[in-house]
Amino acid sequence: MLWTKRALFILTALILSFGLLTTQFVDYAWRYQAILALIFFTYILSAWVLHEELVGGQWLICLILPCFYTAAVALFYFLLPEKFLTRTVILLAFAVGMYAILLTVNIFSIASVRTIQLLRAGQAVGLLMSLITAFFLYGTVFSFKSTALVNFLSVFILSVPLYFQSIWSVILSKNIDIRALKYALILGFLTGQLALVLSFWPLPILLTSLFLVAFFYITVGLFQHQLSGRLFGNTVREYLQIGAVILIIIYLMASWSGR
């Protein structure tokens, strides 16, 4: 039975990878509609392979990451050089990532009803995939070179569901947890504010996205430790030290001279 479910996960990942490839052949005027269709298809396929374990609000919560991951990679795909090797690597990475996400979400849905030893590993993989997804999404937002206000709103809207899913992965409620939603709204707003500030910094897009992802990692890590009862003073110091080092590095790499 386990192999059958994993086989379905592999099949789903391959089908969605083919769908991602197909979007590259759609006329440019219709590409965003094609991406929306692919996101919808991701939800349908993911719900189909996971339906045995999903209950209540999990029909929404557990499918946030698969859908956002598809959107992130599909949007970022357009920013890549039109080279066969580059796009092939991303396509293969997308398939592997989608398979890992489906496995992780399956672990979460099972762990919400009974104890499972793979939960800690699932949380680690889930956080990693959330960071990758956020990196691609933030990079896409800043690639449009919009105003600071648009960057704030875009990052805020995109961050809230990702924060919510990451925090929920510790709570594992069967329905939408109000506490997790409040935390997600607060952290999403703070991330949006940071994006607003970074809009005025002379940073390359990738560094801006990296800075926002670092903030995502630090804040989610702290909240996950707090909710699991493992937030200690040395843990807070370690996360703050990581944040300080990243801030200094990115500040020094900014082109303040305008060159």
Average pLDDT for all residues: 88
Tell me the count of domains: 2
Q: What is the terminal-to-terminal distance?
A: 59 Å
Q: Which consecutive residue ranges, at least 5 long each, have pLDDT under 50?
A: none
Using the alpha-carbon principal axes, give the shape. globular
Order of helices and strands: HHHHHHHHHH
Strand portion, in percent?
under 5%
**Record field, number of beta strands:** 0
Helix count equals 10
Rounded Rg? 19 Å
Structural class: mainly alpha
Helical fraction equals: over 70%
Short summary:
The protein is built from ten helices and no strands. It is mostly helical and about 260 residues long.
Molecular structure report:
This protein is mainly α. The chain folds into two domains: 1-114, no CATH class; 117-259, no CATH class. It is 78% helix and 0% strand. It is built from ten helices and no strands. The chain has helices at residues 2-23, 31-50, 58-61, 64-77, 84-111, 119-143, 148-171, 178-198, 205-227, 233-253. The longest helix has 28 residues, at 84-111. It starts with a helix and ends in a 6-residue tail after the last helix. The relative contact order is 0.09.
Write the layout of secondary structure elements.
Layout: H1 2-23, H2 31-50, H3 58-61, H4 64-77, H5 84-111, H6 119-143, H7 148-171, H8 178-198, H9 205-227, H10 233-253
Helix pairs in contact: 1-2, 1-5, 2-4, 4-5, 4-6, 5-6, 6-7, 6-9, 7-8, 7-9, 8-9, 9-10
